[in-house]
């Protein structure tokens, strides 16, 4: 399976602007620029999109891991925070909260660690990945 997205950038790095379009058209000509990436802009940016991808991938992987362990989650909420420092992504932090009937905290921690290590986006990222995971 292959998926793609396209970026179209015009102008300089600081004064220019780009537009992003995904294969599914969920994003279609969505703007991004320097201010939204490094200051306080109103458009999207690559780090925000990486955070969404990591949160989504991790949540789905955790659901599979929990299912393999005999549990069905009622809800998994993952917030991913990407840290960009000095031109490099230095960390991806996952904050995970889940409702899983009959699950004990230690077993949940084990499943969350498995998902963190093995979700495809975690495997792709060449950065420090941290996590806080708890049952609701």
Structure description:
By secondary structure, the protein is of the alpha+beta class. It has 2 domains: 5-38, no CATH class; 46-135, K homology (KH) domain (GMP Synthetase, Chain A, domain 3, 2-Layer Sandwich). The protein has helices spanning 34-38, 46-68, 105-118, 120-124; strands spanning 5-10, 17-22, 30-33, 75-85, 88-99, 128-135. The protein has a 3-stranded antiparallel sheet. Strands 4-5-6 form a 3-stranded mixed sheet, covered by helices on one side. A hairpin with a 6-residue loop joins strand 1 and strand 2. Helix 2 packs across helix 3.
Q: What is the CATH H-level superfamily of the largest domain? A: K homology (KH) domain
**Order of strands side by side in the largest beta sheet?**
1-2-3
CATH classification, class level of the largest domain: Alpha Beta
Mean pLDDT across all amino acids: 97
The main pleated sheet reads as: 3 strands, antiparallel
Over all CA atoms, what is the radius of gyration? 17 Å
Number of domains: 2
Roughly what percent helix? Answer: 25-40%
Which architecture name of the largest domain does CATH use?
Answer: 2-Layer Sandwich
Distance between the termini: 35 Å
Question: What string, H for helix and E for strand, traces the elements in order?
Answer: EEEHHEEHHE
Q: Helix count, per DSSP? A: 4
Class based on secondary structure composition and strand pairing = alpha+beta
């Amino acid at each position: 399976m292959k998926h793609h997205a396209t970026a179209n950038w015009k102008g300089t790095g600081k004064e220019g602007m780009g537009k992003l379009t995904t294969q599914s058209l969920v994003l279609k000509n969505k703007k991004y620029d320097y201010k939204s990436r490094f200051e306080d802009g109103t458009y999207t940016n690559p780090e925000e999109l990486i955070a969404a991808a990591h949160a989504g991938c991790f949540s789905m992987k955790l659901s599979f891991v929990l299912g393999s362990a005999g549990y069905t989650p009622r809800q998994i909420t993952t917030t991913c925070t990407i840290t960009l420092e000095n031109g490099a992504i230095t960390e991806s932090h996952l904050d995970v909260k889940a409702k899983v009937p009959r699950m004990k905290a230690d077993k949940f921690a084990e499943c969350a660690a498995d998902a963190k290590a093995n979700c495809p986006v975690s495997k792709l990222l060449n950065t420090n990945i941290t996590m806080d995971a708890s049952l609701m």
